[in-house]
Amino acid sequence: MVHFHREKFVNRGGPDGGDGGRGGDVILEVRPTMNTLSVFRHQLKYIAQDGKNGGPNNMSGKSAENLVVYVPPGTIVINKETGKVLGDLVESGQQLLIARGGRGGRGNQHFATSRNQAPRTGEKGEPAEEFTIKLELKLIADVGLVGLPNAGKSSFLAAVTNANPKIADYPFTTLEAALGVAQIDEENSLVIADIPGLVEGAHKGVGLGFAFLKHVQRNRVLIHMIDGLAEDPLADYTQINNELALFDPKLGSKPQVVVINKIDLPDVKNRLPAIRASFKKAGIQVMTISALARTHVVDVLKKVQELLQQTPEPEPLGLETELPVYRPEENRYEFSIERIPEGWRVSGKGIERAAAMTLWEHEGSVRRFQHLMEKIGLDDALRDAGVEEGDTVFIADFELEWMD
Hints:
Blueprint: E1 26-30, E2 67-71, E3 75-79, E4 85-89, E5 95-99, E6 133-137, E7 143-146, H1 153-160, E8 178-183, E9 189-194, H2 210-216, E10 221-227, H3 233-247, E11 256-261, H4 266-281, E12 286-288, H5 297-310, E13 336-340, E14 343-347, H6 349-356, H7 363-375, H8 378-385, E15 392-395, E16 398-401
Parallel strand pairs: 1-2, 7-9, 7-10, 10-11, 11-12, 14-15
Antiparallel strand pairs: 1-5, 3-4, 3-6, 8-9, 13-14, 15-16
């Protein structure tokens, strides 16, 4: 605020314009009760509040509250413009600062000097940071259920956990990855992710594609579910493993428990010896279950538990995800000049920021901006470029008339 103290019997009270409050930050925070990013389909832009204006008597405006946006555990945050990974949010309550709110502008109390005791100079608030980010979710689970569509993965998840996935006798019943917790005994439990069915070409995005393959990257052990009614179960097994390896070579080396499902059906019972023989010939150990009848499902969980004890924890991405996010210092007042049909365009983060913070209606603020142009060499650079009296100079959204 640009303001001068007014009080009865007090002449020339002096500048007492207060500072503006700081704008709110935008922060991502992990909320463990969330397990999808579907909320972001309905809202794509998040804007923190502005700080309050300064007042007279050197009163500073109130700073705005930070805007906290909740995300599920396992969310990877990527700067969409640069592709750089900003953070990997896995722990409950973990936060990541995405964009800082701008500091409040200074009131004219800060610009008084011995030579200018009544400054009509102030600042607007600093422009806020703005980023476009991409969020990817890789579910955090000990075990991933993989296999072709309709192999019985959702039925297995429902049999061993309290999860209620959609179950039906047609492919691609599961359209979203689901999580469930299986209790083996009083001390041991497993977090299991049901990954929607994969098909040939999934690593290229065919079917439900890599939208769900990425979830498997966090799993330490895989349960590979094979449909006992399939025409060639061994070929199905090979196909899924090929898709995993093509998407990420590390996925092909993850420990697997291979399970033949639907052994309660007469057709599967009759051909089970042949199926076992084909897998044995290929050097693959298999287990057999009926997810629907819950036959042998506990044996599968115990086998998975054994493999988990032998498998190390996944390595973290090694990212700095604590507040604040480090960003390298840039040259504050680096600028470029471009000749355009309407005049001259000056671009540069620092000079555009200074223009946005200038109170153009106050002569003192305008003079201060002119001094800045001289200090950083913008005046001389424009003259060297050929600017003439009366030309229009564009800086961000502002149009200035050049006067020499």
